[in-house]
Amino acid sequence: MTDMSNSEASLGTAIHAITGKWAWFVALGVGELILGGVASANLMAASLASVLVIGATMAAAGIFQIVQAFSVHGLRGFLLWLLAGIVYAAAGAIILYDPILASFALSLAVCAFLVVAGMIRIWAGFRMRPAAGWRWIVAAGILTFCVGLMLVVAWPAIGLWLLGVMLIVDLIFQGWGFIAFGIALRNRASRYRAEPATV
């Protein structure tokens, strides 16, 4: 009981601490909405930008893994660490060298992921029978599967814009989410100031 009350108090303290930062969340949300709008002006550029970020991240992660492998040179698994780092860095370098080809490959991987995820959700929904709500899980799985299948059929025509659309949707949803969160914090701060002080 004491642990629960302590965790509730610490959660309340954390929420109170960020309440005064509501404007930063709103500004971050507005910034993401602006970036989403800029990206929507050219879907191909947005796709290539997201691919380049992925490639740079993979290349950097691969280099870090190679350095890590040499830092644990005397331990077991050195060759696995080194091989994993080399493969990761090489994949990142290939993406950076030819981002258009990488955009086609990554968009196909996304399509295949949606198809597989839809099948898994359908299977999980049927496995949950007769629990309440199992039909919703099956319906969500069917929708995901159908979207993935349509994208697979439309590939490679979608290869240069699918990742850009995903980036734009993510930026817009995150932007509105941060704005809503910031406004909720501001309203909470207003209510907190309006409450009479208790003696």
Description:
This protein has 199 residues and is mainly alpha-helical. It contains seven helices and no strands. The longest helix has 33 residues. The chain is extended.
What ranges have pLDDT less than 50 throughout 5 or more consecutive residues?
Answer: none
What is the CA–CA distance across the termini?
26 Å
Indicate the mean pLDDT: 77
Task: Supply the number of helical segments.
Answer: 7
Helix content: over 70%
Overall radius of gyration: 23 Å
Count of extended strands: 0
Largest sheet: none
H and E order: HHHHHHH
Q: What is the beta-strand fraction?
A: under 5%
Give the helix/strand layout:
Blueprint: H1 2-19, H2 22-40, H3 43-71, H4 78-97, H5 99-127, H6 134-154, H7 162-194
Helix pairs in contact: 2-7, 3-4, 3-5, 3-7, 4-5, 5-6
Question: Can you tag this structure with a few keywords?
Answer:
0% strand, 7 helices, mainly alpha, 199 residues, 85% helix
Care to give the gist of this entry?
With 199 residues, the protein is an all-alpha fold.
